[in-house]
Design a protein that fits this description.
The chain has about 525 residues and is of the alpha/beta class. The protein has 17 helices and 24 strands.
Length: about 525
């Protein structure tokens, strides 16, 4: 496992170096934590080099150093064998380095097109040539299968569409060294397959790619080599052709990881959630995002809504949780009580836990500390307040217990600002808060998005334990393996309607894919699905 292996013939860069990018002995520190501890990374010209590690291992930090977002305390960066200084992203772009960030760098109130061209707007004598920009963006969109609506406001589009916007933003700038930080986290399986082909095509064109991913299948499929970080330290670099998923996961977490979900047969009991004729308007289109959907979720079962991103899942969950107002005639019944018009607080205090799709917008207050976020929905309970005053010692004790139980890693423990934590650890904080609350219904929207294999294994165990404790679980997932492994029943949503109910024990991924693509549907889709 040596990253000093000889470069392929013809791969020598302009400065005689076999590496287009070389990061030597990089050390980056934050309060209470060494994010990168003497890390060396070498990228060959035209290769796809994966960067693997647990949540908080230092992968995004290392790439942020390369992109000029952070300055290292120690270490040097070389491009084509020549030492370079990267003070900010403008320097990185000038060197031909582009980055698709895990947490999107988009302006919500701008259109997709305006976000893509921001900072590099084509102009003549100060006049913006937007038609030229639109033409180039649409050509890129078509060539790479990244379909977007250029005139849609970013605040109105799905997470998956925002991810495509980020990728187009980098492609628009014609960069030669491309950093993909968890690029598939919000994409559907079909989109992931397309993106893998795009990345391979970019490498074939001579572009050099750094690919951060927690998904071992993706790394095995697309990467030439893989470097592994663990707790900020460099563990080793391996050739993908001569390694296995199991070896990579062991390098990453330091132990063997199970890839299957162990669970007993479900024992469904009484109905916890009943949806009757739920209809939700679309913010983008004139037609409804959700059309006349009815279903039931019972205690002791995991019901998964599967579908390609943008088929109404976001609006459906928003209506059920209270973030979105459903149309007249819709009914949301929780344990026999109509809660359609009840507040989010009411639903939370009456047994609903919700792991949201967008952890930044709806999951966390980023400028609050970790401990403040962990009690966001409980600070008013007697355990945490007395006569209107917060019992800070109890908050601290509770948060420390959750941090330990769910292995939430942060530089300053409970007082760490949520904004400074890695995406995976932000997700674990939300999951810890929602699973620890007493609930009758758990709504989990992409609960393992951005988590490493060890964390995914643990979260799946916790969700199954929630089911076995008698709660109803409504899971929304774009990960086909997660849908098949975790669900007791699968409901497929296509264009805002339930088009099929499938048994994961008797269906196949191929059949599920046909339903998700709208090529197949059951005549009675939508019924009560009991």
């Amino acid at each position: 496992m040596n990253n000093e292996a000889a470069a392929p013939v013809g791969a020598t860069g302009e400065g005689g170096s076999p590496y287009v990018i070389e990061m030597r002995n990089i050390t980056k520190m934050f309060p209470g934590i060494i994010a990168n501890d003497n890390v060396t990374l070498q990228l060959r010209r035209g290769e796809i080099h994966a960067l693997l590690g647990e949540n908080g291992a230092g992968k995004s930090t290392l790439m942020s150093v390369l992109f000029g977002l952070y300055q290292p305390e120690k270490g040097e960066i070389y491009k084509d064998g020549k030492k370079v200084t990267i003070n900010d992203p403008n320097d990185a772009n000038a060197l031909g380095i582009g980055m698709v960030h895990q947490h999107f760098k988009l302006v919500d109130v701008f259109t997709v097109l305006d976000n893509i061209i921001l900072g590099v707007e084509p102009n003549t004598a100060g006049f913006l040539r937007k038609k030229d920009a639109r033409k180039k963006v649409m050509e890129l969109s078509k060539n790479y299968g990244l379909n977007v609506d250029p005139d849609a406001l970013v605040e109105d589009i799905t997470v998956g569409m925002q991810q495509r916007t980020e990728i187009l933003k980098m492609l628009y700038r014609d960069n030669e060294i491309l950093i993909f930080d968890e690029p598939t986290a919000a994409l559907t399986p079909q989109e992931v397959t397309e993106l893998m082909q795009i990345i391979k095509g970019l490498a074939a064109e001579g572009k050099s790619i750094l690919f951060i991913s927690h998904k071992l299948n993706e790394i095995m499929e697309v990467a030439d080599r893989c470097s592994v970080l663990r707790k900020g330290k460099y563990i080793g670099t391996v050739d993908i052709a001569s390694t296995t998923k199991e070896e990579l996961s062991n390098m990453m977490v330091g132990r063997d990881v199970k890839f299957s979900v162990d669970k007993e047969e479900a024992k469904p009991a009484e109905t916890v959630l009943e949806i009757k004729n739920l209809t939700v308007k679309s913010r983008i289109h004139k037609k409804n995002a959700v059309s006349n959907v009815s279903l039931k979720v019972r205690a002791g079962e995991i019901v998964c809504i599967a579908g390609i991103d943008g088929n109404g899942q976001t609006e459906f969950v928003s209506a059920v949780s209270g973030l979105e107002k459903p149309e007249a005639g819709s009914q949301i019944i929780l344990c026999g009580e109509d809660v359609t018009k009840k507040s989010i607080r009411y639903k939370n205090t009456h047994g609903v836990s919700h792991i949201p799709e967008d952890r930044h917008k709806h999951g966390l207050v980023l400028d609050y500390t970790l401990e403040q976020n962990l009690v966001l929905q409980r600070y008013f309970e007697p355990e945490f307040q007395k006569h209107g005053f917060i019992r800070f010692d109890e908050v601290r004790k509770y948060s420390e217990d959750l941090i330990e139980k769910f292995d939430v890693r942060s530089g300053q423990g409970p007082v760490t600002p949520a904004r400074t934590m890695s995406g995976g650890n932000q997700q674990k904080a939300i999951i810890a808060r929602e699973l620890d609350r007493k609930h009758k219904l758990l709504i989990a929207f992409q609960p393992t998005r951005g988590l490493d294999v060890g964390a995914i294994e643990f979260i799946h165990e916790q969700i199954v334990a929630t089911r076995d404790a008698g709660a109803a679980v409504l899971l929304v997932s774009l990960e086909l393996e997660e849908v098949m492994n975790l669900s007791d029943r699968i409901l497929v949503m296509y264009e805002g309607e339930i088009t099929g109910e499938l048994d994961p024990k008797t269906t196949t991924i191929q059949e599920l894919g046909l339903y998700m693509a709208g090529a197949k549907r059951q005549k009675t889709g939508g019924g009560d699905n009991a």
